[in-house]
Every structure is written in C-alpha cells, then in structure tokens.
Give the backbone structure.
Amino acid sequence: MSCFEALVDRHKNFAFTIADRILHNEEDAEEVAHDAFVKLLTSIDKFKGDSKFTTWFYRIVMNMAISRTRKKRVQTEDIDNRPAGIPGYTSFEEFGGLNLQDRSYYLNKAVGQLKDEERMLITLYYFDELDMDEIEDITKIDKSNLKVKIFRARKKLAESLRRLLPSELESIL
Amino acid sequence: MDHKEKDIENFDALEGRGDLSGDLKDIEDLDQWMKSLPLKEVGTNFTSTVIASALLAQKRHANFKILIWMMGIFGLLILSSYFLMGSGGEAMEFTYLDQVRIESLQFLEMLADPKLRQLFLIIEGIICLVVIEKLVSSFRILRHSV
C-alpha cells in the first residue's frame, strides 16, 4: 500500500488538473481524481503495459471527467465578470505582461468557454507529460484529425481571449 | 488545399516543423502562456482519503470475486446433482429429494465415512450462509450507490 501512496502523491496534482480543466469545477474535479485513483487500484490487473502507465491512468481520469460533464453540465462563466483586483487588458501584448496569477485567471476562464471535446484536447495538449502519440492513444482520435481538432481548439481559445478586448474598450469609452 | 490540410500545416508550423506566418503569432503566444499555467493542488487530506477508499473498494472487489466463485461452484453442484439423477425428469416428482438423498448417500459413501460427511454438510451450510450474507450486502451497496 505504501507504493500506492507514493503513486497517489506523485500523480494527484496531474489528475486533479486534468479533471479541473475538463470540468471547470474544483469540487467535482477532486471527486473525479479521487474516484480515478480508487478505480486504478481495483483495476490495475487490466493494465497490460501496452502503453505508458500515465497514458493509461490519464485516460481513466479523462473518461471519468467526461462522463461527469455529461451528467452535470459544466457552468461557463461570463469572461468579463472578473473579481476585483484582477486587471483587464486591451491587447495580447498587454495580456502577456500580466502576472502569472492574473493570466491564469483569464486562461482558465477562456478554456471554460470551449466545448467539452475542445477543452479535453486543449488540456491534454498543453500537458508537458504527454506527446502526440500518447494523446492519440488516450483520445483514440487518429493523428491527422487530432492535429486539426487541436489547432482549431487553440485558435478558438485565442479568439476567446481576444473577445475581451472590445468590451474593455467599451468600458473605457 | 482544403481547410483540413491547411490546419494540419498550421499545426506543424507551430510545432516548429514549418514556416510560422504572422497569423499564427497569437497562437504561439497562447501556447507559451498555457504551458506556463501551474498545476492545481489537491486538498491536504487527499492522499489519506484515497487510500482509505481504495482499501475499502479493494475489499469489496475481493468479496465480489469470492461471491462469483461461490455462486459458480454452487451452480456446478446443482447441475451435477441434477444430471446424476439421469434425464432430470424425476426432478418434477415429489420423490425427487428422497432419490437425491439415496443417490448422494451412495455416492458420498464411496468418498468418506459418515462423520466426514457431516463435516462436509456443516461446511457447505456455512458457505451457503456466507453467500447469502454477501448477496445481501452487495445488494445494499448497489442500492446505496444508485
């Protein structure tokens, strides 16, 4: 059991982050990560070693998060509705100048505006741990389709961030 | 060139396997910002909660396996008793249990003495009670989880 404990400690934040980016709700994401680890222990005999352990495990997390989104629709928030203390921006250059915490706020909100599949692909793509072959293995989408879908999701994400600009200008005017 | 091919070309360009046009600059910036996003951290008691739940789930999983095996063995025993009776047509008669008793006594006498047979029946009774208990608890767990 100490091995399992070490495994949980090593992967818990990755599992939680994947679930959180897909679900956009910390409480549900923690529950999904928790259930994924429990499932991992009871079905470890199904792991054949054909793929990397992380690929297999992240697929469990992702499938559980997706099935949770189907049960409970993800609530998307209005991107302009930012809490006090978070500065706005009027251009991409200005956005790049924001500190990491403020930038994370906007990026997470923008990811939340995407559709379920786009959010899932974006989450997996920006995970340093995974390469394209592993993403292909997790999502079961062939590589050329995967490239198209990921590129379009990134484009949409950039547009989501840019959508904030006119409303900022309007608020100044 | 259709949209799909164009998107694949843009994807490869951003991966550093092609020329990067001005239109893709925003996405390149976005990539850098997204990759710099920190990992979210779970609550403090996460690991211990997971371990406790996992142990419980593992126990339930093992119990369920035992239950399935037990039911399989019982099924085989029932089937073998049925076929030992011949065609099975006698099973519909009231004398069936008597016949089973007589047949099984003859069969068991070949295997062991009466004392061992009693012991066998006691063990079988205990296993039957365990199976009933497992069935009831599995049903309760299932009802609770739904």
